[in-house]
């Protein structure tokens, strides 16, 4: 018996729901960097007001982005934050890693895999691994330069 449209819709809905749930850190970091990619330098206050992101939270986000080398502070009267690379060279995956977003759907895969007692016998690990690799590739090809 062939696959039904209902089964296919469920499958796509399942993957869509896994795929789009990001942390607040990631959502705010992407928004802030996209804003910064249009015009910089910008102060955190300016970004906070324009993007309606709480400034105190944005400070935490930018500490992580600065530590990852994605932004740098510029002092002076026209100071603020600037991107450290051209916007076409900063990927969403770079940003996600900088703020600690884990796109791996299971703990046994990803940047810091956790031990799993059924790792070698796991029947679904190869599917999770494929999802992880596809997601990583997608976000590694998506940059702040939205042409």
Summarize the structure.
This protein is mainly alpha-helical. 51% of the residues lie in helices and 5% in strands. It has helices at residues 5-19, 24-38, 44-51, 55-67, 92-98, 125-141, and strands at residues 71-74, 80-83.
Strand content: 5-15%
Give unreliable regions as ranges: 1-16
Apparent shape: elongated
Alpha-carbon distance between the termini?
43 Å
Q: Strand order of the main beta sheet, please?
A: 1-2
The total domain count is: 1
The major pleated sheet works out as:
2 strands, antiparallel
Q: What count of helical segments does DSSP give? A: 6
What does this structure look like?
The chain is mainly alpha-helical and 147 residues long. It has six helices and two strands. The N and C termini lie far apart (43 Å). Mean pLDDT is 83; it is low at 1-16.
Key words describing this protein structure:
single chain; mainly alpha; 51% helix; Arc Repressor Mutant, subunit A; 5% strand; 147 residues; two-stranded antiparallel ribbon
Task: Give the helix/strand layout.
Elements: H1 5-19, H2 24-38, H3 44-51, H4 55-67, E1 71-74, E2 80-83, H5 92-98, H6 125-141
Antiparallel strand pairs: 1-2
């Amino acid at each position: 018996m062939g696959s039904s449209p209902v089964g296919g819709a469920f499958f796509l809905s399942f993957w869509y729901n896994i795929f789009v749930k990001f942390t607040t850190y990631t959502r705010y970091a992407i928004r802030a960097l996209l804003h910064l990619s249009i015009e910089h330098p910008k102060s955190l206050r300016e970004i906070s007001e324009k993007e309606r992101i709480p400034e105190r939270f944005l400070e935490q986000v930018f500490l992580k982005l600065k530590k990852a080398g994605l932004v740098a502070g510029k002092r002076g009267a026209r100071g603020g934050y600037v991107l450290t690379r051209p916007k076409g060279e900063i990927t969403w995956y770079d940003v996600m890693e900088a703020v600690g977003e884990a796109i791996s759907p299971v703990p046994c895969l990803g940047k810091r895999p956790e031990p799993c007692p059924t790792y070698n016998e796991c029947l679904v690990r190869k599917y999770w691994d494929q999802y992880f690799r596809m997601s990583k590739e997608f976000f590694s090809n998506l940059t702040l330069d939205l042409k």
